[in-house]
Write a structure and sequence with these properties.
Oligomer: single chain
CATH topology: Rossmann fold
Radius of gyration: 15 Å
Structural class: alpha/beta
CATH superfamily: Vaccinia Virus protein VP39
Helix content: 25-40%
Bound molecules: S-adenosylmethionine
Distance between the termini: 38 Å
Strand order of the largest sheet: 3-2-1-4-5-7-6
């Protein structure tokens, strides 16, 4: 990892703690980076950029030829994240400001082989349905905070159960767990 990314991540973590920005934990980041290393995705989609901490963690293990599209609704967060990506001289991050529910369906000719969802918990099913047509057949879909906030996403669990879609849940840190779904297990 370049020194500027290491320093920026350290700074963002500090700012996140000071301002109650719910950045992923370091343990979660390590788990996801290992997954990215194994999967070797070429196009990552992230819903919920915040200050760019998780995006930068992912970028730190990606080759320049791969890219991340990250979407954030809050203007100030988006701007701050863009500033951080620029400072780190990363050209393979496309940060989009707006509501992911509107942005994702409008992404033309883009197909993602790894999707990471970490935004408004009660909207998770909407994001999932929106990203399906934008995934490669072998895509991995990762959904954060699925245990602590399970009560905010009953429709997501109901959809998975009703459609007999298998998923695994990984306890990535003391805080919470992530859900991993294979796109190929969803028949729509
Ligand atoms: C948990 S934080 C993301 C943390 C970030 N992934 C990290 O670990 O550094 C969730 C973010 O999603 C954003 N968000 C919420 N609803 C959204 C939506 N519909 N579209 C895009 N972003 C949204 C919030 O503004 C917030 O910054």
């Amino acid at each position: 990892m370049s020194q500027i990314i290491t320093l920026t991540l350290r700074n963002l973590k500090k700012i996140g703690l000071e301002h109650s920005i719910p950045n992923i934990t370091e343990e979660n980041a390590e788990f996801l980076k290992k997954l990215i290393g194994e999967k070797n995705p070429q196009h990552i989609l992230e819903i919920g950029t915040a200050n760019g901490y998780s995006t930068l963690q992912f970028a730190s293990v990606l080759p320049d030829s791969a890219d991340i599209t990250t979407i954030e609704y809050a203007w100030n967060m988006h701007n701050f994240a863009v500033e951080n990506f620029r400072n780190c001289k990363l050209k393979n991050i496309h940060a989009i400001w707006w509501d992911a529910k509107a942005v994702v369906p409008a992404l033309a000719n883009e197909f993602f082989d790894l999707v990471y969802i970490d935004a408004m918990k009660k909207e998770y099913l909407t994001y999932l349905l929106a990203i399906l047509p934008k995934c490669t057949p072998d895509a991995l879909i990762i959904i954060d905070d699925v245990e602590k906030f399970a009560d905010k996403m009953p429709d997501l669990y109901a959809y998975l159960d009703a459609n007999r879609i298998s998923y695994s849940i990984e306890k990535t840190d003391i805080d919470d767990s992530i859900m991993i779904i294979q796109r190929s297990d969803i028949r729509t």
